[in-house]
Amino acid sequence: MGFAFCIAYLVFLIIYFQEYENKQEITQYSNLREMQLQSMQNEIEQVKIGCLAAEGIDYIALGKQTGKMAAKVLKGEAKASELNFETIKDAAFYGNTKVAENLGITLPESLTGNAAELFDSITE
Predict the structure, then answer these.
(1) What's the CA angle centered on 22, arms 21 and 28, to 5 degrees?
(2) Edge-to-edge strand list for the sheet holding 53-56
(3) For residue 81, what is the DSSP state?
(4) Which spans in 75-115 are helix H?
(5) What's the predicted TM-score (pTM) here?
(6) Do residues 122 and 99 touch, judged by C-beta distance below 8 A?
(7) What is the pLDDT along the chain (124 residues), one digit of tens a residue?
């Protein structure tokens, strides 16, 4: 009877630890997926402080465009209410190679080749 009990207990432990291992893998996958979702942003400054990548507008270009619009108003060439709504049409890719390294991935050349800027460190 004792031998059968030991065998049954060993089978139980094997099944239990297999299920535990599967649960851990699922948890790790979920955590990685969450990290990947949080690693893509549209704010360039977030890439500097630890996000993997962003595709967003160049705020310097936006400032220049806004300045031109303001100059028209200040010079009396147009009233602010008469100006058309303008947008930045081109988004640029920004990546952080240090974050990619920490995640164990490589940013593809198709993105890095045309990147507006690549960061190689994480700033605080």
Answers:
(1) 90
(2) 40-41, 53-56, 92-96, 117-119
(3) G
(4) 97-103, 109-112
(5) 0.53
(6) yes
(7) 566 666 766 766 677 667 767 676 666 656 665 555 555 556 778 888 888 888 877 777 888 888 999 999 999 999 888 888 887 777 788 899 998 888 888 888 988 898 888 999 888 7
How far apart, in whole angstroms, are the C-alpha atoms of residue 40 and residue 26? 22
What does the alpha-carbon distance between residue 16 and residue 50 come to, in Å, rounded to a whole number? 38
Produce one character per residue of 44-66: b if its CB has 16 or more CB atoms within 10 Å, e if not: bebbbebbbbbbbbbeeeeeeee
124 vs 40: CA distance, rounded Å: 18
∠ CA 57-82-76, nearest 5°, is 100
Total residues found in the chain within this entry: 124
d(CA 8, CA 6): 5
Confidence (pLDDT) at 118: 93
Q: Which amino acid is at 60?
A: I
